[in-house]
Design goal:
The chain is an alpha/beta fold. The protein folds into three domains: 266 residues, Alpha-Beta Barrel (TIM Barrel), CATH 3.20.20; 93 residues, NAD(P)-binding Rossmann-like Domain (Rossmann fold); 34 residues, no CATH class. It is built from 16 helices and 18 strands. The strands form four sheets. An eight-stranded parallel barrel has the order 1-2-3-4-5-8-9-10, surrounded by four helices. Helix 1 links the parallel strand 1 and strand 2.
Length: 438
Amino acid sequence: MITGIKTKSNLIAAVKEAGFRHLEIPYENLKEAEAQIQSVAHCDDLSIGCITVSAGKTDSFRDVISDALDNADRLKVPYILIETEGIKDVKDIIETLIGIMDRIKRSDCRIVLENGYYVEQGDVRVRRNGLCDAEDFRKVLAELRKAENIKNSNNSRFWAGLNIGHAMLFSANVVELITGLGSELKFLHANDNDGIHDMHQMPYTFTVGRGILLTDWRLVIRELHKVGFDGGLFLDIDGLTGSVPSPLAGTMLRMVYRIADEWDKSFHWDQILDAIGDKKLITFGAGPFMYKFMELYGERHTPYFIIDNDEKRWGEKIGGAEIKNPEEVRKIPGDEVYALVCLAAYRDYVRQFHELGIADVDVFDAGWFMEDDKKYAETWCPDKGDTGEGTLNKWYRYDKEGRLRLRRFQLRRLYHELRNIWRKVKSLLRRIVRRDKG
């Protein structure tokens, strides 16, 4: 799996400085991006992970996709993403790809089709195209693979890509999309919007009320874990990078990188733990996060021991690892320890490890792996019950007594959508009146 960011040539230096190493480059900006990469200091760290072709913005899709394939082979780019924004019927795209199938089969690059939308001329409504439903998406992939004529679908060049922002425009159930596509999903575009406009903003931007995210990003990443996602995860935030003043661009990109890095880390704990070598793994915490860690990684990476501040737990064992007094850590040289905090409120415990003489401290966030919010609440927080915050895009939830409740933030979204439509209707009526007067 690779994690990166979609960017244009003018931001490549700032993107690298922020920490990103894999870039997604629009096809029309590819030559400028190549030149800019070469001009950046230590450019060997950078690679183009994806070339994006916007099918709805080109008059000659066949020529563009053929040239993109040539460039992908030359630059060893693993993905070509076909955006279908503005495409009503994907039939023409399918026919074009089938028409150049021999050329595609000579390439090692994966062709990813992404869910999109279109707007009829003179209309204000965003409409689905043929890649907005998992079942329809699978049918398109099956048609392409039939023409590809390969026995094992794992060797196919054609895969599914999911743009979270586009899905949110239809209040789609993103969980159903991810699970419905399953192993067919090889690319994810992460961007946020208000559920009405395709804004391509940074994840975690939009909330309704206090602290209620319009897009439940923790649930999105959790579902990717469930389906064994191992493709490309790229942030597509042109709405942010295109509007932030130049002096602030670097700061904003560093914040965006921290999001991408946290997501990426959740997919690579086996590699992280393998890399500690001969160091002794000591974990902090004996609660649900620790149990989840042991469930996922305990067999291969059993802690040397566990520490916890609750002296009532000392002497107990979790998965073969004993819970001890934190002071036991002082008996081991600090440079021989890799410390891992397995607690939600981790800052104080990171500080406590430092006070015990351990510099190499990391945090394991089990929230990326918990089955779902309801199960977590019932298992570890019985006093909270079903908060309803774990399910994306539902107009309702059930409270602890089993009573049906409408979800406030979805009703709020409907209100804003209707208000936006009314504004556009009024604007249209004004133009009609002015035209009649003229």
